[in-house]
Amino acid sequence: MPHLVAIDLPGGEEFVVALRRAWDDGDAVFPVDARLPARARVELLAAIAPDRLVDAAGHHRLTGRGVEPGDAVVVATSGSSGPPKGVVLTHHAVQASALATSRRVGISGDDVWLACLPLAHVGGLSVVTRALITDTPLVVHPAFDPDRVEQAARDGATLVSLVGTALRRIDPRLFRMIVLGGSSPPPDRPANTIATYGLSETGSGVVYDGRPIDGVEVRLAADGEVLVRGPMLLRCYRDGSTPVDSDGWLHTGDVGCWLEDGRLHVEGRRGDLIITGGEKVWPDRVEAVLAKHPLVGDVAVAGVDDIEWGRRVVAWVVPRGPEPPSADALRAFVAEWLPGYMAPKEVRTVGAIPRTSLGKIARSSLTATD
Q1: What tens digit of pLDDT does each residue of 273-292 get?
Q2: What whole-number distance in Å separates Cα of residue 280 and Cα of residue 202?
């Protein structure tokens, strides 16, 4: 049985060499997030159960288990509730993703990929696997650093995958194309960006600027859930379960709609929807408006249990400057753009918004004490 090799190395040439060696040996790889504290790392390894480990000290045997022939990658999900699941992607799936996304981006012989997102997440790892499979030159950084990213572009990198928070910290004009994942892209994003939609279970983005990439089918269930089918979907989770139904459709847990021009618009996670007084409120829409307020530096919106409303809309706000905006001012501001029931009934001033390493708001952390 092929091994599952956990790679606990920072992004760089050593990581790429370890991945290549594992693949050459017929094994699969599991990238470990090097930023995890020791206890979290132990829990992660226990949950995913690799049977080999490569780190700075060398190669080690573990009391885990191997993978099925043809498996290429295991990626840990975010694990926002309960232990993380390991998404198992085959070589066929990784190759299908690499070729389809490269065609959509329009890879040429002059392009160079820059990987600067965490390699423990599919958004960062897929840059590496895409470059290897298409034989495109590749530069890998251990972490996102704005100065190093811009210097890489000046040195010849033409393509990069980023999240919205990282995009705002660099000069995007330095790259030919920027692939944006993670949380919702900024509404004023540059023309040389592509907004992608995908999950760990899809191996990377499968919808680019609202349109599925080659080989991918998307449909909406009766309740609006986004369903995806294509050759790059996961084989299963590490525990053997799967979110793919008998007809090959991945049930994403996201809710979306079709725009008039035929593009897909993803509203958000089904569990993030706030139903307040019988009305539906998507946090992303409220956050986008609040972010425009001159006294708001960062913001997150979620629902909190309420006796009167069922759920009330609450905004967590990081002030831009010493004086935080008042709740009345923010409610009035939202009401200028959206129906009044979407305005937050409560505003909480905080020092920072909890986010994942890919910039997504960790809403469960916001409401953990409510």
Answers
A1: 888 887 878 888 899 899 99
A2: 28
Contact 360, 350 (CB under 8 A): no
At 355, the pLDDT band (50, 70, 90 cuts) reads confident
Q: Taken in order 82, 245, 1, 87, is the CA torsion positive or negative?
A: negative
Residues 196 and 208 sit within 8 Å (Cβ to Cβ):
yes
Which residues, at least 6 apart from 367, have a Cβ–Cβ distance to it below 8 Å?
302, 303, 304
Name the maximum alpha-carbon separation found in the chain. 62
342, pLDDT greater than 80? yes
Let me know if residue 238 belongs to a domain.
no
How many domains are there within the chain?
3
Which pLDDT value is given to residue 79? Answer: 45
Pair of tokens at residue 229:
């089918």
**Model confidence band, residue 81 (pLDDT cutoffs 50, 70, 90):** very low
Whole-model pTM: value is: 0.82
CB 129 within 8 A of CB 7: no
Which CATH number do you get for residue 59? 3.40.50.980
Together in a domain, 86 and 96: no
CATH code of residue 318: 3.30.300.30
250, β-bridge pairs: 228, 244
- Same domain? 188 vs 140: yes
Domain hosting residue 9, numbered range: 4-90
In the predicted structure, residue 78 carries a pLDDT above the cut 70? no
What is the pLDDT, as a whole number, of residue 184?
67
233: Cβ–Cβ under 8 A, 6 or more apart, which residues? Answer: 93, 201, 202, 203, 244, 248, 250
The answer as to whether 296 is a domain residue is: yes
- As to burial, measured by CB atoms within 10 angstroms (0-12 exposed, 13-18 middle, 19+ buried), residue 252 is buried
Residue 124 shares a structural domain with residue 216: yes
Would you tell me how many other CB atoms lie within 10 Å of the CB of residue 325? 19
Which tokens hold the place of 355? Answer: 């986010």
Could you give the CA distance from residue 66 to residue 50 in angstroms, rounded to a whole number? 7
With respect to residue 36, please indicate whether it lies within any of the assigned structural domains. yes
Region 14-36 average pLDDT: 95
Q: Which CATH number is 119's domain given?
A: 3.40.50.12780
The reported pLDDT for the residue numbered 321 is 84
